[in-house]
Amino acid sequence: MRRLTKSFYERDALTNARDLIGCLFVHRHPAGTVAVRLVETEAYRGREDPGSHGFRGVTPRTETMYGPPARLYVYFTYGMHWCVNVVCAPEGRCEAVLLRAGEPVEGIEIMRANRGGVIKDRLLCSGPARLAQAMGISKPHDGSSLLRGGAFFCAEDDETAAMREGEISQTERIGLAEGRGHDIPWRFVVPGHPHASRPR
What we know:
By secondary structure, the protein is an alpha+beta fold. It has helices at 6-9, 13-19, 108-115, 121-124, 128-134, 158-165; strands at 2-3, 24-29, 32-44, 72-77, 81-88, 95-106, 152-156, 169-171, 187-189.
C-alpha cells in the first residue's frame, strides 16, 4: 500500500476524480481503522462549475475548498447528512472530488455501528452520505489533512492499478438541478459495481 503524495492532489479535480477510483480511503477512527476502496467519485471545479459550492466565491462554508490541496472538505446537506470531498489543485483554485461510494475493506463492524444498525455490506457506503457516516466523518473533520501524520489518508495498491486499467464509466453527475451543471459528465464509476450508489 502506497500513500498518495501531495503532488497527486495538486492536479485538477477531473483528473483526480478518475484516478481516485480503486484507491483506498482510510480513517484511523478512535474505535479502530476503517477503510473503503473507492468505486464512485464526482469532480467539482469552482468558478467554472455551476454545480460547485465554490461557484460564487469564498464563503465560510467553502473556505476549505479554496485552501491548499490534500485536505478534506466536509459539508452538511439536506439538513441531515454529511458528505466528504478531497480538495485538489493549487491553493485558490477551489476544486474538489466528492467521494460518492466505496467498497468496505476494513473495520466493517465499526462502519455498521456508525451507520446505526444491521446493514448489508453492499449498502454501508453506497452513496456519499452513507460513506461519510460509515467512516465516522462529520463537521469537525473539515480541513483534515490527507498527508502524513493525520487520521485520514488515501493510498493505492495492486488492486488499485487493476481497477484503473479496467472499465470506468464517465457519466453526468447525480442530484444536480437543471442549470446547475447537471449535464456535465464529471462522475466516474466502476460500472455494475455492487457498492456503487446507483447502477448504470
